[in-house]
Specification:
Layout lengths: L1 E4 L2 H12 L5 E5 L12 H17 L7 E4 L2 E5 L5 H6 L7 E5 L3 H14 L4 E5 L3 H22 L13 E4 L1 H14 L5 E4 L2 E8 L10 E5 L2 E3 L2 E5 L2 E2 L3 H6 L5 E7 L23 H25 L3 H12 L11 H34 L14 E4 L3 H12 L4 E5 L7 H7 L3 E3 L7 H4 L7 E4 L4 H14 L4 E5 L3 H14 L5 E4 L1 H14 L3 E7 L2 E9 L11 H4 L5 E7 L24 E2 L13 E6 L1 H8 L10
Parallel strand pairs: 1-2, 1-5, 2-4, 5-6, 6-7, 15-16, 15-18, 16-17, 18-19, 19-20
Antiparallel strand pairs: 3-4, 8-9, 9-14, 10-13, 10-14, 11-12, 21-22, 22-25, 23-24, 23-25
Helix pairs in contact: 1-16, 4-5, 6-11, 6-16, 8-9, 8-10, 9-10, 11-12
Length: about 625
């Protein structure tokens, strides 16, 4: 695996590939002494610096600029040019990740790498979604043409995976941020508006068995504490006999709080929102007066009720002849109808003005409604905040946004989704109060400033000590220190501090491993992988029932993917830290008697060694296997 980048995501991605998947990695980064960057990934950067120092000390007098140490080869280069890529071994690599902060740099390097190795699996970091789709199609087409020209030499024709995956760190980090705010954890599986999470349950805790038991935690054996380590994917007998051991189960979570209208029905608001409540009561009162006058006229004159209503309306609009010579009761009713008509004119004018104002404000920012509670306060509508807002509204979770800049990119999204927005500096007094922070379910601070996020979190905790807080912090060391301090100060409140590079790295690593890898969930010192596989070509699955295909400690079929398969139907790798995102159209309640067919596509949980056996790979011995 080759990773090229210029910020913390590159270091995080290399660590993920080595630590979780056990891969050999070549890391291409700019020289530390010639690159000025903001403080990111303190521990990863420190480890890389120490690694570089050992290389320099061990290879004094060498000028190659790279050395394999501890499973990682470090190459120093400002950009991924053709010479640098060749030196990094792209011609022999299985996958290349280009995670520079600049889209143009990534595209240029991807085109060069595809020319050097048409069989290379490419993973690109691009912010521009539309451009990313076109680049992905272009590079896949180039790989397909190269494969057709080479016939069945080398990799066996079309048998290799030369796919191109375009990801954005904002898109991949958003699900974990949302899950932390809603469910209090980022160990989640998200699909089609459904949140599934991996939950650790202590012995004796209720809650049922969930959708599946993923692991048994470390426990005691024969009275000796700590003798048994974690057991991944246990069978029913092991779960039944696991006395005094905690479990990790997969269960569904949902948001039980109030909901706001999503505003997806177009720009036309509902009828009830056109007029205020007071105006609607006024209109109802006038209609009642007209009906009473019509009934009274029918009783006095003996006319048919419909004709009496017609005459009443004529009197109301002052277009009827005066009731000269008519009985006194008829004359009094005509005068009353004229009086009601005078009262109707200002009400109709107010209705017209309110309706025009409603249509005009339909494209404007909404204010938080009175009585709102149980919502999520989202600070920042930049690149990350916009993706988080979209995710929250997809789950029908009420949101109130706070943004300091009137030109933020996410304001258009908030306006389209009709989400309330408070414009103002969150550090100023009264801004969080306007967002109803005292009645909120959670605070999600995702601005680009660490100090702003921290200040908002501290102020929100002073208002609501039990408020759930999720912070986006750029520096990992700073995030760890903030997390520990807030947890110590507010032990009963949920606190999460997240780095975007930390959240996005697993999704990029999953894409590098191939599109069948969806993500990973750590269980103590081991890891569970989630994958989507075609049953055909895997004798361990094909023709077997779900119960027969299950192998304890190796793999377990979790769901059947009913979405259409074929070109273009591959699931998007959309994961985040401790997250496995899965494709839509999944059937989770598969009976053990269901026979897996060759055309079926399944989602399964597996250990590294079990997945390697299914895919025909060789796995090195490691504590994480």
């Amino acid at each position: 695996m080759v990773v090229c980048g210029d910020d913390g995501l590159a270091h995080r991605l290399a660590a993920e590939l080595r630590g979780v998947y056990g891969e050999q990695v070549t890391l291409v980064v700019p020289a530390a002494e010639r690159t000025v960057r903001p403080p990111v990934v303190g521990r990863a950067r420190a480890a890389s610096a120490a690694l570089l120092d050992r290389v320099v000390n061990a290879a004094a007098g060498r000028t190659g600029g790279s050395e394999p140490v501890g499973g990682e080869r470090l190459v120093e280069a400002a950009e991924a040019t053709e010479a640098v890529l060749a030196d990094a071994g792209v011609e022999r690599a299985a996958a290349l990740a280009l995670v520079y902060d600049d889209d143009e740099t990534n595209i240029r390097a991807a085109l060069t790498a595809r020319r050097l190795n048409p069989r290379l699996r490419l993973v690109l970091r691009l912010y521009n979604r539309r451009l990313g789709q076109h680049i992905e199609e272009l590079l896949d087409q180039a790989a397909a043409l190269a494969a057709g020209g080479e016939g069945d030499g080398g990799g066996g024709g079309g048998g290799f995976d030369a796919s191109t995956t375009v990801l954005s760190d904002a898109d991949t980090a958003a699900p974990a941020l949302v899950a932390s705010a809603v469910a209090g954890t980022s160990k989640v599986v998200q699909t089609d508006g459904l949140l599934l999470r991996a939950v650790e349950r202590v012995p004796g805790q209720g809650g049922g068995a969930g959708l599946a038991t993923l692991a048994l935690l470390s426990g005691t054996g024969n009275g000796v504490a700590g003798e048994q380590g974690p057991e991944l994917l246990p069978d029913a007998v092991a779960v039944r006999d696991a006395v005094g051991r905690g479990t990790v189960v997969l269960e569904q979570v949902s948001y039980a709080g109030p909901s706001l209208p999503s505003g997806r029905g177009g720009i036309v608001p509902p009828f009830a929102s056109l007029f205020s409540r007071r105006l609607r009561w006024s209109l109802a009162g006038l209609v009642g007066c007209v009906a009473a006058l019509a009934v009274a006229l029918s009783v006095v004159t003996g006319e048919h009720p419909l004709f009496a209503t017609y005459e009443t309306l004529l009197d109301l609009f002052a277009i009827n002849d005066p009731a000269l010579g008519a009985p006194i009761g008829r004359q009094i009713l005509q005068l009353l109808a004229g009086l009601v008509g005078l009262l109707l004119l200002p009400v109709l004018l107010a209705a017209v003005l309110e309706a025009l104002g409603t249509f005009r404000s339909a494209s404007a920012l909404r204010k938080p409604p009175r009585g709102l509670g149980g919502h999520v306060v989202l600070l920042g509508l930049g690149k990350i905040g916009t993706r988080v807002l979209t995710r929250l509204r997809e789950l029908d979770i009420p949101v109130v946004c706070v943004e300091a800049g009137a030109e933020a990119r996410g304001l258009a999204t908030a306006r389209r989704l009709r989400v309330p927005v408070v414009l103002g500096d969150v550090t100023q007094e009264g801004v969080l109060e306007a967002a109803k922070i005292h009645r909120a379910h959670a605070l999600l601070a995702v601005t680009s400033s660490d100090t702003t996020n921290l200040e908002a979190a501290l102020y929100a905790r002073s208002v609501r000590p039990d408020l759930r807080v999720v912070l986006r912090l750029y520096d990992d060391d700073f995030a760890t220190a903030v997390y520990r301090t807030l947890r110590a100060a507010h032990p009963r409140a949920s606190t999460r501090s997240r780095s975007v590079s930390h959240l996005a790295a697993p999704a990029f690593a999953g894409a590098m491993m191939g599109r069948q890898i969806l993500g990973a969930i750590p269980v103590e010192r081991r890891v569970l992988l989630f994958a989507a596989l075609e049953v055909g070509g895997h004798p361990q699955l094909e023709g077997r029932t779900v119960g027969e295909a299950f192998r304890a400690g190796a793999w377990r079929v979790l769901a059947l993917d009913t979405a259409p398969s074929g070109p273009g139907a591959e699931p998007a790798v959309e994961g985040a830290y401790e997250e496995a995102a899965v494709p839509s159209g999944l059937v989770w309640d598969l009976p053990d008697t269901y026979v897996l067919k060759a055309a079926d596509r399944v989602v399964l949980a597996a250990t590294r060694r079990g997945l390697a056996e299914l895919l025909g790979r060789r796995v090195r011995d490691t504590a994480l296997s």
